[in-house]
Amino acid sequence: MKKLSIITINYNNRDGLRETIESVVNQTWQDFEYIVIDGGSKDGSVEVIKEFADHIDYWVSEPDKGIYNAMNKGIAVANSEYCQFLNSGDTLSDTNVAKCIVSVLDGKAIYFARTRFMDTFETITIPQQITMRTLYKRSLPHPSSYIQRQLLLKFPYDETLRIVSDWKFWIQAIILENCSYDILDLIAVDFDTNGISAKQKNIALTERDVVLKQLLPHRVYIDYFHEINGINYTDTDYDKLFIEIRKRNYRKIIYFTTVILMRFFALFKKSALFIKRYPWQI
C-alpha cells in the first residue's frame, strides 16, 4: 500500500485543473496515488484530464451531488494510508513537497502542513494545541492536511452541507474522537482563494450553526456564541434576531431600510402640505 493518495476535485475549472495537475505530475518523486474526480464538466476539463491520463491512477467525469459528494467518491476509490485533497486551482508549493511530506507520515491520524494564500502570499499558522475554541474561530487548512483514510471512512463528509463539511469533520475527528495529529513546519500548498468557501461566508455561518446544534450539548453550543459575540450574549430571541441580521448582506439591508424611510418621509411631507393647503373646515 502506498502512503499517500492525492485527490483532485473539479467542476468546470479547466485552467485551474491544469495548474493543479501540472503541480502534481511535476513532482520529482512519484510514489503516490493520484485521483481526479470531475463532476461532468463541459468546459474542456475532461480533455485536460485525458492529456495527463498516463500520470493519473484513477479518474472519472460524471455528474455528482456537490463538492463533498465528489470528495467522498475520491476516498472510496483511494488505496493509500493517507489522503490529501488538492482541489482544482490549488497547487503543490514546489516539486519536492510530496517527497518531504511522505517522509514524515508516521502513524498520526492527521498531519497539518502550512498553506499559502495565492493572493497575499500569507501562510496559515496552526496552533500546536487545537481546541474547540480554535474551531469556534476558524477552520483548519484542508488542502495541506494529510488524513488517514480509515478516519475519513469513519467520518465521511456530510453531503447535506455546501461549505463547512470539512469543519464538521475536524470537530468530529479532533474534538470528539480525540484523534492524534501533528503540525509540520512546511509550506505544502498554494491555495486558490477564489473557491466556494472563500466567497459564501453567510452560508458558512448558517451551516456552522446547524453543525454545532447537531454535535454539541446546548451549554457548549452557547459557549460558541459567547466566543464570537461577547460574554454579554444571552440565548434570547432578541439576541438571536440580531445574529440573524448580521448573517445577511448589510448593504442590501441598509439600502432597503433607507428607501423605505425616504418614501415614508416623502409621503409624510406631501400629507403635511396637503393638510396645510386644505385644512379641515368645521
Describe this structure in words.
With 282 residues, the protein is of the alpha/beta class. The chain has helices spanning 14-25, 45-51, 67-77, 97-102, 132-137, 149-154, 165-176, 196-199, 201-215, 218-229, 237-247, 250-277, and strands at residues 4-10, 33-38, 58-61, 82-85, 91-92, 110-117, 145-148, 181-191. Strands 3-2-1-4-7-6-8-5 form an eight-stranded mixed sheet, sandwiched between helices. Helix 2 (45-51) links the parallel strand 2 (33-38) and strand 3.
Number of strands: 8
Decide which structural class fits the backbone: alpha/beta
Unreliable stretches: none
State the end-to-end CA separation. 99 Å
Average per-residue pLDDT, rounded, comes to 85
Main sheet summary: 8 strands, mixed
Please give the count of helices: 12
Strand order of the largest sheet: 3-2-1-4-7-6-8-5
| Rg, alpha carbons | 25 Å
Order of helices and strands: EHEHEHEEHEHEHHEHHHHH
The share of residues in helices is 40-55%
Assign an overall shape.
globular
The portion of residues forming beta strands comes to 15-25%
Element layout with pairings:
Blueprint: E1 4-10, H1 14-25, E2 33-38, H2 45-51, E3 58-61, H3 67-77, E4 82-85, E5 91-92, H4 97-102, E6 110-117, H5 132-137, E7 145-148, H6 149-154, H7 165-176, E8 181-191, H8 196-199, H9 201-215, H10 218-229, H11 237-247, H12 250-277
Parallel strand pairs: 1-2, 1-4, 2-3, 6-8
Antiparallel strand pairs: 4-7, 5-8, 6-7
Helix pairs in contact: 1-2, 7-9
